Each structure stands twice: as structure tokens, then as C-alpha cells.
Predict the 3D structure of the following.
Amino acid sequence: MPTLDQVEKQVEQLTPADKKELLRWLEDLLEDDLEFTDEFKTKIERAERDISQGRGRIVKP
């Protein structure tokens, strides 16, 4: 198995299009590894309830 350093050197040699494709692939791979914690799910559910009851707030940059 190649080391991270070896992989990095190989990635540097890719074309810009191949680097973008690699990025998309890595994002998909990492996204699949993410798990929602119970705490995060609870916060999302609370936010959905607040919004549906008109208790949302608008944040302007």
C-alpha cells in the first residue's frame, strides 16, 4: 500500500480535470463515512419545529 506522501506526489502529477474528479470522488467517500449523531438529529428536529411554528430567525451577513 502506498504511503500518503507517495499518493500526494502522484496527485500533483494529475491533470486539473483529473484532480477535480478525484476531489469529487473523495468528497463522496468522506460523505458516506459521516454519521449523524443523536445530538445533531435532535438539534435538526428542534430547528424544524421552530421554523414550522414561526420561531425561525433570519441571519443577514
Remarks:
- The CA atoms of residues 50 and 58 lie 13 Å apart.
- The helical segments are 4-12, 16-33, 38-52.
